[in-house]
Amino acid sequence: MKTRDQEYREMFMAEALEYYDSMSRHLSELERNPSAGPALNELFRLMHNLKANARAMGFTDLGEMAHHLETLFGLIRDQQRTFSGALTRVVFAGVDAMGAMIRAIGANQPLPDAQALIENLDRLVRGEEPVFEEDEVAETDEEAGKKMELSDLVYIQVKKLDNLLNLVGELVIDRDRIMTLAQELDNPALLATAQHLFRISDDLQYSVMDARLVGVGVLLNKFPRVVRDVASAEDKEVELILSGQDVQIDRNILQIITDALLHLVRNAVSHGLETKAQRQQAGKPLVGHLTLSAMTERDDVLIQVRDDGRGIDTEAVRRKAVERGLTTANIAATLDEQAVWAFLFEPGFSMASKITDISGRGVGLDVVKLALDSLGGQLRVESELGAGTTFTLVLPTSIAVKGALLIEVEERPYAVPLMHTDTVLALQPEQISVVGGVLLTHFQGQPVPLVPLQLLLNDEGDEPLPLATRNDVQGAQQVLVVNYNNRRLGLVVDRFIRQQNIVIKPLSKPLDTIDLFGGVTLLGSGQVCLVLDVPALTRLFITKRP
């Protein structure tokens, strides 16, 4: 597996070789027409970029050569020097030397000595004549004749990768069917072929997924300007800290969460961080701190937005939820912090006291929840009043292939994305109680409501779910504990089948209107399997609980 340094080195090499080819082309054009402004401007730009990239990678000598050539092209552009005579000879030699340096970097060899060329470039910058050693130019020309390099990297449109991944998904489905058939027929030759196909398709699948990965930094690095603008509008001082830009994630996932992350960052500056006067009164540093970080956790990518601001006023949110009619005062009084904070993600919910360009317009954190739901992701919230708040986006690495737990209800298989599963439990009747017509158990010290999945799947109309009684608990109960928006729910199922990766396809009409299903997949047996939408199931239970 490639290290980050190897990846950056390859990217640098690809760009450097492109720059070198472009420089050679523009130099020839400039030699034919010394007044060619576009060619001169492009040469200046290429030298500037190569200088910056080389210095960032630690290739000091190459960066120094590019810097001197950049300076010289600036003088030519300003008509202080003329691209003719000895200057032309030195510039061509300098570009050739940079090509040799780039090739040495690619071969992991020491860079050739270019001190004499740099000294000549210095002389030309000062307006002096260069000094040539015997046969210097002839040897250089004899050597940009032996070498013609092509980049090891190619650029490809994302939609082509999307199409390729879809085709791989189809292959994975057929692969599983062939494997199941080989096992049923008990044919050793067919089974060996199926196993070989399994290994190849696995490698192909992960290779295509790897090609779609990008560093989270391509998004995170856009936020310093966003924070600066919002802080200026709110008259606040904010220091932004970025980390984890190297963490890799599917490019499409990054695209989908862009608006959600933008909203969280703007919300943190506008709502989370106090004004300078408020921070001074609270005994805090005048400058607020906002941290935007990425990290990996098992197969997931976590992106966190953390501020050291005022924190969430749970009681204020509780009162607002009652005012908005989202719950009753009696029920609100029984809710814990996480359940109260969940109201922040209801459509149109806002704690802003006044409407500004930043907040209070009815576009709330629900956009974050919707984006995560579409990806099968999760949102974690941690907050301490007066100390700050942390929002954590839990994202899959890829959206094409997902880990899932296969379960069975009424002799039908269903798939539940692992992203939303906490654990599986085998509960005895004495571990289950009935409270207010709802089955209840305790897991990790917290009460978890239970509901037969069959009831939710077969639910029709606006009637609440039937009241549960002790008679509903006969023998051991197989329970899948799912988690959505910091709410746990135990789904009682008939049995657990297995865990496997699945390729999710969208439902066709008219099934695409059913909220409880997030798509469909095909099992190795050829059987169609519906993928359950845990957020929709959780919302249905909350809405219809007795």
UniProtKB/TrEMBL annotation:
Residues 194-399 form the Histidine kinase domain. The keyword Cell inner membrane does not apply. InterPro entries: Bact_Chemotaxis_CheA, CheA-like_dim, CheA-like_homodim_sf, CheW-like_dom_sf, CheW-lke_dom, HATPase_C_sf, HATPase_dom, His_kinase_dom. Residues 401-543 form the CheW-like domain. The modification Phosphohistidine is found at residue 48. It holds the Pfam family H-kinase_dim. The keyword Transport does not apply. It is an enzyme of class 2 (transferase). It catalyses: ATP + protein L-histidine = ADP + protein N-phospho-L-histidine. Gene3D superfamilies: Histidine kinase CheA-like, homodimeric domain, Histidine kinase-like ATPase, C-terminal domain, HPT domain, SH3 Domains. Residues 1-105 form the HPt domain. Its EC number is 2.7.13.3. Keywords: ATP-binding, Chemotaxis, Kinase, Nucleotide-binding, Phosphoprotein, Transferase, Two-component regulatory system. Involved in the transmission of sensory signals from the chemoreceptors to the flagellar motors. CheA is autophosphorylated; it can transfer its phosphate group to either CheB or CheY. This is Chemotaxis protein CheA.
